[in-house]
């Protein structure tokens, strides 16, 4: 069951994203997959998430593990480039219904991932979806931003 967030506070959304990152860092790809909603267009499943991370944004057949998500609280900031994180809420005119989940798209998240112990330019993007009194995240892409 995807995680329900009961606040539109950016801090609560960031906590949910960091929890998703933590699951990936622990190798819990299935749990991370289940934490978010999914649009079939993107074709996400647990092995695909792992493969795209291992390929640094492109699917990789994983003959060897090259790239993996690591803990965000210990990731090194290299060359004084801080991780990019953006949580944006749309204005009322930009909000629109989501066709698959019977929810309203109210915003978006882009968050860099810590890879091999360093913050990287590999980012995860999510839609922020709202239904009545809670919101959920829908994983869209994992790509170099």
Architecture overview:
- The two termini are 28 Å apart.
- The protein has one domain (10-144).
- The chain is built from 3 helices and 6 strands, in the order ααβαβββββ.
- It is 22% helix and 33% strand.
- It is of the alpha+beta class and 145 residues long.
- The model has no long low-confidence stretch (mean pLDDT 94).
Order of helices and strands: HHEHEEEEE
Mean pLDDT level: 94
- Global morphology: globular
Gap from first CA to last CA: 28 Å
Number of helices: 3
Poorly predicted ranges: none
Main β-sheet description: 6 strands, mixed
Number of domains in the coordinates? 1
- Give me the Rg, rounded: 15 Å
How much of the sequence is in beta strands? 25-35%
Determine the structural class based on helices, strands and strand pairing: alpha+beta
In total, the number of strands is 6
Short account of what is shown:
The protein has 145 residues and is of the alpha+beta class. It has helices spanning 10-25, 29-35, 46-54, and strands spanning 37-38, 85-89, 96-98, 103-115, 118-131, 134-144.
Write the layout of secondary structure elements.
Blueprint: H1 10-25, H2 29-35, E1 37-38, H3 46-54, E2 85-89, E3 96-98, E4 103-115, E5 118-131, E6 134-144
Parallel strand pairs: 1-6
Antiparallel strand pairs: 2-4, 3-4, 4-5, 5-6
């Amino acid at each position: 069951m995807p995680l329900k967030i009961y606040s539109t506070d950016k801090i609560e959304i960031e906590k949910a994203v960091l929890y998703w990152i933590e699951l990936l860092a622990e190798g819990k790809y299935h749990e991370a997959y289940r934490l978010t909603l999914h649009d079939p267009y993107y074709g996400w499943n647990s092995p695909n998430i792992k493969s795209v991370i291992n390929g640094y944004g492109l699917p990789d057949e994983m003959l060897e593990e090259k790239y993996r998500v690591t803990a965000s609280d210990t990731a090194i900031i290299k060359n004084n480039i801080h991780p990019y994180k953006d949580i944006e809420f749309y204005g009322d005119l930009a909000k629109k219904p989501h066709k698959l989940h019977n929810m309203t798209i109210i915003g978006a998240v882009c968050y860099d991932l810590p890879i091999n112990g360093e913050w990287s330019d590999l980012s995860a993007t999510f839609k922020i979806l709202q239904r009545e009194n809670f919101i959920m995240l829908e994983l869209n892409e994992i790509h170099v931003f």
